[in-house]
């Protein structure tokens, strides 16, 4: 019995219904195909116990429309059972309905990677329901790439190709490691990006032009040093530019940066409220927005500060210290 199941076995249903009075209209959007799809019965059962109206997705992109419907229904507590892709669609639905500040959002990790859930201290489905009920509410930043919202990251270049190219089968077998495996395969064939990046930081504009392996823009995720959770409430992106370098240096740089926490020659890190990424030769750049692919020659990114209320677990740290 895992921790989640142990806790579930000791919780009486009447305790579950003793929720917050103010959250009187609740809806749960369930992706029955995410992860290994073994969460369906558990989410349906617990969702009903906790008093949620459950809407199940029937196809790719469906969570956008279901979220818009939930807003029209006047829902004020919205649970998302799925992975990061489902969450991305729900955020898009909230933006479409102009309702980012009208609902309180909680996640029930039922995907493959569940990066967002992990970063806000939600580790299991049962615990996720409890966090929705009793957890702290925090207002986090939402990033926009053009007019498309993202909460975790916008990645251009090598890692975008890797995260998009990672097959469902690989993800199922290897989880997080699948991204690393695909990344190593991709690095051998990747040509690099010819880009200009203009960053607005502390009111000052700085431009970087050159050949890059990738540009990583994190809201919830931090990519430098040991990575981990970024400050999601500071109104700033964590921007990392990894310059083009010989493949043989790449691993050394990655190890120095991630494991040893050293700054390295080929990696620039800056915090910014807004940035523009332009391809210099008019070629489209492949981006990954919260893991979903998109393609642009030019992208303007900005942060909407403290735009979304989310239910966070006790492990969530509003001001994580960079390690
Ligand atoms: N009924 C459905 N049939 C097929 N695809 C669906 C259905 N409902 C949702 N989807 C799609 O499933 C995709 C994957 O969902 P999601 O990203 O949440 O799970 P995951 O890939 O397992 O997890 P993670 O993104 O955390 O690694 C999304 O792109 C979504 O559009």
Automatic annotation (TrEMBL):
<feature type="region of interest" description="Disordered">
    <location>
        <begin position="1"/>
        <end position="25"/>
    </location>
</feature>
<dbReference type="Pfam" id="PF00781">
    <property type="entry name" value="DAGK_cat"/>
</dbReference>
<dbReference type="InterPro" id="IPR017438">
    <property type="entry name" value="ATP-NAD_kinase_N"/>
</dbReference>
<dbReference type="InterPro" id="IPR016064">
    <property type="entry name" value="NAD/diacylglycerol_kinase_sf"/>
</dbReference>
<feature type="domain" description="DAGKc">
    <location>
        <begin position="22"/>
        <end position="149"/>
    </location>
</feature>
<dbReference type="GO" id="GO:0046872">
    <property type="term" value="F:metal ion binding"/>
</dbReference>
<dbReference type="InterPro" id="IPR050187">
    <property type="entry name" value="Lipid_Phosphate_FormReg"/>
</dbReference>
<keyword id="KW-0594">Phospholipid biosynthesis</keyword>
<dbReference type="Pfam" id="PF19279">
    <property type="entry name" value="YegS_C"/>
</dbReference>
<dbReference type="InterPro" id="IPR045540">
    <property type="entry name" value="YegS/DAGK_C"/>
</dbReference>
<keyword id="KW-0444">Lipid biosynthesis</keyword>
<dbReference type="GO" id="GO:0016301">
    <property type="term" value="F:kinase activity"/>
</dbReference>
<dbReference type="InterPro" id="IPR005218">
    <property type="entry name" value="Diacylglycerol/lipid_kinase"/>
</dbReference>
<dbReference type="GO" id="GO:0008654">
    <property type="term" value="P:phospholipid biosynthetic process"/>
</dbReference>
<keyword id="KW-0067">ATP-binding</keyword>
<dbReference type="GO" id="GO:0005524">
    <property type="term" value="F:ATP binding"/>
</dbReference>
<keyword id="KW-0460">Magnesium</keyword>
<keyword id="KW-0479">Metal-binding</keyword>
<keyword id="KW-0418">Kinase</keyword>
<keyword id="KW-0808">Transferase</keyword>
<keyword id="KW-0443">Lipid metabolism</keyword>
<keyword id="KW-0547">Nucleotide-binding</keyword>
<dbReference type="InterPro" id="IPR001206">
    <property type="entry name" value="Diacylglycerol_kinase_cat_dom"/>
</dbReference>
<feature type="compositionally biased region" description="Basic and acidic residues">
    <location>
        <begin position="9"/>
        <end position="25"/>
    </location>
</feature>
<keyword id="KW-1208">Phospholipid metabolism</keyword>
<protein>
    <submittedName>
        <fullName>Diacylglycerol/lipid kinase family protein</fullName>
        <ecNumber>2.7.1.-</ecNumber>
    </submittedName>
</protein>
